[in-house]
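Dear colleagues,

I hope this message finds you well. In preparation for our joint manuscript, I am sending the DUF2007 domain-containing protein (Roseovarius atlanticus) sequence together with its predicted structure, so that both groups work from identical material. I would be grateful if you could confirm receipt.
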Amino acid sequence: MKHLLSTTDPTVMAFAKALLQGEDIDCFELDVNMSILEGGIGIFPRRLMVSEEDYFPARQTLMDNGIEVEAIS
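The corresponding structure tokens are as follows:
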């Protein structure tokens, strides 16, 4: 799994997941349960992960739709 996106905005995360699912790209959201620790105020970012082989198509899909993704490392 490769890290594709980090955000504290739940609407960006939902939009990104919907775009990837529309392209048949499996994704997994990490840190969803951090809201228990933070009290639901949204200060910890959630991470979106994709498989190695889907990373570049997923990255391009998000960038084409105006979502800023993590820099390639």
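For the figure legend, we might mention the following. The longest strand covers residues 2-7. Residues 21 and 48 are 13 Å apart (CA to CA).

With kind regards,
E.M.
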